[in-house]
Amino acid sequence: MGSMSSNDPKVTGEPTRRPKQRRMRDMAMSMAVLLVPLGIFFALWDWASEDRQVSVADTSEDYLTAESLGLEVIRPDLSEDWKPISSALDAGEESIMLRTGWYSPDGGGLQLVQTTGDPSEVYEQIDGGGREVEAGGVLWSAYDTDDGEAWATELAGTNVVLTADADGAAELPELAEGVAAGL
To answer: Quick check: pTM over 0.85?
Structure first.
């Protein structure tokens, strides 16, 4: 049982070696292998999200219907870079509310709300207080909302509310100027 034949492999131990010391170049190459694909991914992502095409909504039907119901509809005078992306008309017994969503040149989402009702129906935070801002020769009351900012005023017998999320709030003055020019 304990005999070894000449065909059995012999285990010989080699002296242990210290691991080869890593150089800075090796570490840089390892990092490059990791970072290059990541950089390519972010470059492609940025490129893909650049020139976004948005679906433009036809607002004419809602505008004409709102006018036939007695709402003094304001059509904002904005550059072609501003795109209407949604439109909704709510004609209740008490009030008429026309909402138009806008996609700004900088990619922000803003909304123009025209109503015969109280502006607080649009946002509860619109309570008559607010800070005064001027845009397009019109005084607006500005309010902070949960989502961003809202501006409210009365134009041509209609309560007008402009809303923007936090990213689009900087574009409220341009929308307000377009609304004032559309009177």
So the answer is: no
